[in-house]
């Protein structure tokens, strides 16, 4: 899809801290696809960040006292044009590491779209987690676009580098990112003209 506006920047939030996690494959897939479209894609990996369990939100710390990782994320979130959430499905719901990662912030997400890339070992591709995520993302001020990018049977659908092993994944991802880019461009224009508050 040709771009008529300058490249955008996106945060790719990975939702798993498991050592044998498959989600990193989906994150690599998304990052590579965004970069191929000329955009910046920054991985936000809770395994690397080692964030504490939520006690205080970033905004509740006195200036200069928040953990360094939270300050870095706040700076990143304020400058990106949207968020892509890469989530597995834990007991039909949101992985705890992802919920913890999301809940540290609020205003930093405002007026930006989100998109959900979900996956599972089975045939449903994590869509039950996506249903739960929609409510959370809307409440955080980054409502998700209507499309999702589910990846069923992720172990065989993507190799270790996140390269699709079937046409279905590539086709679904292209349509999903076309829609996500549309919303990101539209909301960027609106932010430049000011926000309601």
Automatic annotation (TrEMBL):
What is the annotated signal peptide range for this record? none
Q: Which molecular-function annotation in GO is an example for this chain?
A: oxidoreductase activity
Q: Where is the NADPH-dependent FMN reductase-like domain?
A: 8-148
Q: Which domain of life is it from?
A: Bacteria
Keyword Oxidoreductase among record annotations: yes
Q: Which cofactors are named for this entry?
A: FMN
Q: Which key words are in the record?
A: Flavoprotein, FMN, Oxidoreductase
Is-annotated flag, keyword Oxidoreductase? yes
EC no. given is 1.-.-.-
Q: Where are the transmembrane segments?
A: none
* Name of the protein in question: NADPH-dependent FMN reductase
Q: Name the species this protein comes from.
A: Rhodanobacter ginsengisoli
């Amino acid at each position: 899809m040709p771009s008529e506006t300058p490249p955008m920047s996106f945060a790719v939030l990975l939702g798993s801290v498991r050592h044998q996690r498959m989600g990193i494959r989906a994150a690599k897939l998304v990052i590579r696809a965004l970069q191929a479209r000329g955009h910046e894609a920054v991985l936000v990996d809770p395994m690397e960040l080692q964030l504490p369990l939520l006690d205080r939100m970033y905004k509740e710390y006195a200036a200069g006292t928040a953990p360094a990782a939270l300050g870095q994320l706040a700076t990143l979130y304020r400058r990106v044009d949207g968020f892509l959430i890469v989530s597995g499905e834990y007991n039909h719901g949101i992985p705890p590491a992802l919920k913890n990662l999301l809940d540290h912030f609020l205003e930093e997400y405002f007026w930006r779209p989100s998109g959900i890339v979900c996956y599972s070992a089975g045939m449903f591709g994590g869509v039950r987690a996506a249903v739960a995520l929609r409510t959370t993302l809307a409440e955080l001020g980054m409502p998700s676009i209507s499309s999702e990018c589910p990846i069923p049977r992720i172990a065989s659908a993507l190799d270790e580098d996140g390269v699709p092993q079937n046409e279905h994944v590539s086709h679904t991802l292209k349509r999903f990112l076309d829609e996500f880019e549309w919303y990101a461009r539209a909301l960027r224009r609106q932010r430049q003209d000011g926000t309601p508050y």
